[in-house]
Q: What sequence folds into this?
């Protein structure tokens, strides 16, 4: 698959609780979409930007854990 010159390959990298598994394409805004696996085992698709900017840190399990602590 051909990528743009500024494409960053996140395959195998871990950020927060998410491990990047594979590039799946681009969304309508041309942001790269990735299949990721959360530390709890859930797999889902997300944009790399949302992970690198910190708006997505897990599949939602982190929020549940934090709510239980309160």
A:
């Amino acid at each position: 698959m051909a990528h743009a010159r500024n494409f960053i390959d996140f395959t195998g990298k871990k950020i927060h609780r998410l491990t990047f598994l594979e590039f799946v394409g681009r969304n309508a805004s041309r942001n790269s979409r990735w299949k990721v696996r959360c530390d709890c085992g859930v797999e889902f698709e997300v944009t790399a930007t949302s992970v690198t900017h910190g708006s997505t840190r897990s599949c939602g399990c982190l929020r549940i854990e934090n709510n239980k602590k309160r």
